[in-house]
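User: Can you predict the 3D structure for this chain?
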Amino acid sequence: MRKRLPHVLIVDDDMQTLKTMSTYLAGTARVATALGARQALDYVHQNSVDLILLDVEMPIMDGFKMLEQFRKIEECINVPVILVTGRRDKSTILNSGLMGVDGYLAKPVDKDTLINKVKEVCESKEIKENKKTILMIDDDMSYLKQVNSILKDDYNVIMINSAKLALNYLLKHTPDIILLDYQMPLYNGANVMNMIQKNNPNKKIPIIILSSALSREALAECYTYNPSAYLAKPVSKEVLIENIEKVLNNKG
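Assistant: Here is the predicted structure, written as structure tokens:
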């Protein structure tokens, strides 16, 4: 059986770049193009994609802001992103890493380099999907990225920074474990656990509560929903992984 080609969306404000990269990827992927942010957002709302190639320097909304918008869309929460830019300064490269992207390409993009990077990221995505999935819910995106950097090599990590988006995600997906921040605007950890259990009565997903401080009242409120563990922020890599593995082993 012929292997399905990945569906790749290329986002850039330069039409010639879109044409060139599309030509390079012919035969390697099913390519769609978007001339800027608006077209890209409209496209991902209506179509499922396997990978996004995203230009950094675009008017109105640059690649970094565009990436933040993608992560607010349920269908794009876990889609890998490769940033493409003519800038080679340390700040851009550093920001690329901090944003949790899956790759970085410098313009002008070489054909072989582009094809190899697309294949590499798509293969990595397939491997990641076979790992245990951790859903992280926290309103602090910088903290999500920090914890993701600790866990991404061993787990398939889904980062969501709003309770509403997390609940929508859980309607269609069942992670192996949830890491839940207690102190969030609008809904605290207990509220979120209550909504998870009401909306997903047949899904018994273990939850680890993360918080910088929990009062006795908050602990008592959380206890009602039987979380698997409470961890105080900041939590070390060793303690976090030890607790995750303990919960997953008990689950199995």
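Residues 111-129 form the longest helix (19 residues). The first strand starts at residue 7 and ends at 12.
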